[in-house]
Amino acid sequence: MKTIHRVLIGCIALVPGLPAAAACPQDSVQVGPSCLDKFEASVWKIAPPLAAAERAAIRKLRAGTVTLADLTAAGAIQLGLAYRDLAAAGCFDTGNGCVDVYAVSIAGVQPAAFITWFQAVAAARNSHKRLPTNAEWQAGALGTPDPGFSPAATEDCNTSSNSGTPDLTGSRANCVSDTGAFDMVGNVWEWVAEWAPGLAACGQWNSWIGLTGDLQCFAGDLTGSVVPGALFRGGAMQNGTTAGVFAVRADDTLIVSPQVGFRAAR
Description:
alpha+beta; paralog of FGE (formylglycine-generating enzyme); 13 strands; about 15% helix; about 20% strand; globular; disordered N terminus
C-alpha cells in the first residue's frame, strides 16, 4: 500500500500531486480556494487628486496590508456610519458614482452599514475584491458561536445590543469561526452575491431610483412596485436567538439599514 506523506509548511498541508492553496492576504482567511475578509468591511472614501499617501493607501488596501494609520495619513473619510452618508458623498444607492470608495478589512473600526447591495459591490470592486457567494459565506461562518440573548459582555457574538451601533470589528474575542473570520454572527447582517429567486411576473424598476424602463423579473408585478431582493446572512446586533450561521434573509437590494453591512472576498 502506497503511503502518502504530508509536509507542513506554515499552516498549509502539501500532498504530493495536489496543488497548494495560494496564501491569502493578511486581511483575509482561507475558505476553500477563496479568501474571505477576516473582518466585516468598513468603507472609506479616498478622493482625487491622489498624492503619494493616497496612492500608497490604495495599493495597500488592495494587497490586504493597509492599516488604520495608512488610511488616516491618506485623509480617508469613513462612510457607512449614518443614514445615506454614502449617497451624500456621491456614491448613490444604485452604485453609480461609487468610484472612490473602498472596502477595507481591518480590526478596531466600526463596520459599514446603511449600505445597499449595489454600493457594497462597488466598494468591493474598487478594492479588487467582490461579494462572497452564499456558499463561500456559509463555509467561512461555520463554527462561529451562536450565543442568543445572553452573550458574555466582551467575548461572544453581538446579538443582543440595543445601542443601535455595531461593535468595532474584531472586538468580540470569541466571535470567530473555524476559519478565523470574526463577527459572522450578529453585529450587522452581511450581503452576499446572490439575488433572491425570481417570481413569475415581470415588471420595471421603480422610477425613483432613476432606472425607469429597465426590465426586472425578480419581484413585483407590471406596476414595478417592488424591486429585486438579495441575500444577507448571519443576523445583526438585535436579532438575539434568530441570529446565527444559518440565518438568512432575502430583502430589497436597495435597502438602507443600520443593521445591514457586508464583508468582501477574493
